[in-house]
Amino acid sequence: QVQLVESGGGLVQAGGSLRLSCAASGSISSFKHMGWYRQAPGQQRELVALIRILGDTVYADSVKGRFTISRDNVKNTVYLQMNSLKPEDTAVYYCYAARSGDYWGQGTQVTVSS
Q: Are 94 and 37 within 8 A, CB to CB?
């Protein structure tokens, strides 16, 4: 059973930075892709960033140029570096991984104050 554990969320002022981490219970090199989604209150869950098995990345238009997704295959961890945070980035952020099925972490709260 795959387990994904997020960390790094918190409260930050607008313009600040946070780095989220997602530690997987096994080798992340076996995943087709991994990524981050977020869900704000009353909103649908949306893709933030994705990193595929060959290393190419996809970003939501709203975070391009501000967020960076990366992975460390030795530590089996995926990161989301978030810079120039805005109040509209406030949400619960979920780690996601796809292999034979879809796997989700428990989520970590990110709150950006204005």
A: yes
| 83 within 8 A of 63, measured Cβ to Cβ | no
Return the CA Rg of the chain: 13
Beta strands at 108-113 and 10-13: parallel, antiparallel or unpaired: parallel
Question: Pairing relation of β-strands 57-59 and 46-52?
Answer: antiparallel
d(CA 14, CA 28): 32
Write out pLDDT tens, residues 27-81. Answer: 888 888 999 999 999 999 999 999 998 899 999 999 999 999 999 989 999 999 9
Close Cβ partners of 100 (under 8 Å, ≥ 6 residues apart): none
The residues, ordered by sequence, that sit 6+ positions from 109 with a Cβ below 8 Å of its Cβ are 9, 10, 92, 93
| Other Cβ atoms closer than 10 A to 76 | 17
